[in-house]
Amino acid sequence: MGGQARSTGRTIMTKNKLTLSAIASVLMTLAPLLTSSFVTYQAIVNEATLAQFTVWQWTGVTLVCVVTSALSLTPPTFLALVFGYFLGWNALLPLFALNMAAILLVNLGVHWLDKDRLRRYFEQNPKVRQVLARIREQELKFIFFAKLSPVLPFAVTNLVFALSGARLRNVLLGGFLGMVPRTTLAIWAGSQAHELRTLLNQPNSTSWTQWAIAALVIVSVVGLWQILKRSLSSHS
């Protein structure tokens, strides 16, 4: 009886963890939409003030955005548009630093709170464990292709990789390499914009950026599919 009670208790706790993880994923998808709308309004209203910001003020903004990006409040691509509009190509370094710092914060925070409990739960299933092991053999590629896609939410992928137990080195390197094309594209779009309101309300208004985004999504999907296909075929 005691063993059954403990087993039931563990099952309930695990279901609670899965439910909390699912809720967190939904919130991390919706929160950026709400925050982006608020930041868009503030940036448009205070455009003249932002245009006069010094290097130190932008440094402070970058540090704040590290935290908000880690908490899934401000999408990095959206920030790249804003930074690109005001700073041009000078936004490259702070944005790459911002992205890496946000990824690191999420990874460390999840490991501290979760302590790999969710990963160990999923790996109790032998089939899931073998598939995850196959994916880890190409972990760097998998992370790269996931981060390459402008469609996959930045914060959600950070959470998934942290919960899956991916190696921090691969998370950072794959995240950096994957974020380079989409961040550079957003900075370029921001630097070419003539009006902040038009840029933020219609970030992909030009056919060139639409084609570039479509290309990133296609490459990302094909790359992820190839890795998953090989993992599943190796398992079977």
What integer is the average pLDDT?
A: 80
The helix-and-strand class reads mainly alpha
Count of separate DSSP helical elements: 12
The major β-sheet equals: none
Helix content: over 70%
What is the molecular shape?
globular
Terminal CA distance: 38 Å
Q: Provide the succession of SSEs.
A: HHHHHHHHHHHH
Sequence-ordered SSE layout with sheet pairings:
Layout: H1 2-45, H2 47-51, H3 55-70, H4 76-87, H5 92-114, H6 117-122, H7 126-137, H8 139-148, H9 154-163, H10 168-192, H11 196-201, H12 207-235
Describe the fold and architecture:
The chain has 236 residues and is an all-alpha fold. The protein has 12 helices and no strands.
How would you sum up this structure in a few lines?
This protein has 12 helices and no strands. It is mostly helical. The relative contact order is 0.12.
Task: Give structural attributes.
disordered N terminus, globular, single chain, 12 helices, mainly alpha
